[in-house]
Amino acid sequence: MPQWIGTAARANDLDALRIAAHTLKSNARDFGAMRLSVMCEELEQECRNGAVADPVSKADAIVSEEAAARETLNNVAAEDIL
Questions:
Q1: Residues 23, 1: contact at Cβ < 8 Å?
Q2: Which of 29, 39, 30 is nearest to 65 (CA)?
Q3: What phi-psi label fits residue 53: left (phi over 0), alpha (psi between -120 and 50 degrees) or beta?
């Protein structure tokens, strides 16, 4: 999913960027990655408004945050959540 955000941002395709941000927002929320979810929600809203200042930087920040969230989830042991 994060690669879709980068591709859409670099193409300045706000519809694709909005859809990717929306999808990742929901997935992030499901896994407890609330900072990532909020970042995606903000980008999604900016796309809806048709005014995204520097979409590539925002997409890169989201990709970076997604990688950090993924790393955190990978380090969670099953006994940590039981």
A1: yes
A2: 39
A3: beta
Backbone angles phi, psi at 73, to 5 degrees: -65, -35
**Minimal CA–CA distance to 55: which of 25, 24, 12, 20?**
12
Q: Which two tokens stand for residue 54?
A: 């520097």
Token pair in block for residue 78: 């099953």
Q: What does the DSSP assignment read for 7-67?
A: HHHHTT-HHHHHHHHHHHHHHHHHTT-HHHHHHHHHHHHHHHHT--SSHHHHHHHHHHHHH
State mean pLDDT over 4-15. Answer: 94
Average pLDDT of span 8-14 = 95
* 80: pLDDT strictly greater than 80: no
Contact 17, 43 (CB under 8 A): yes
- In the structure encoding, which two tokens stand for residue 19, read together? 């859809």
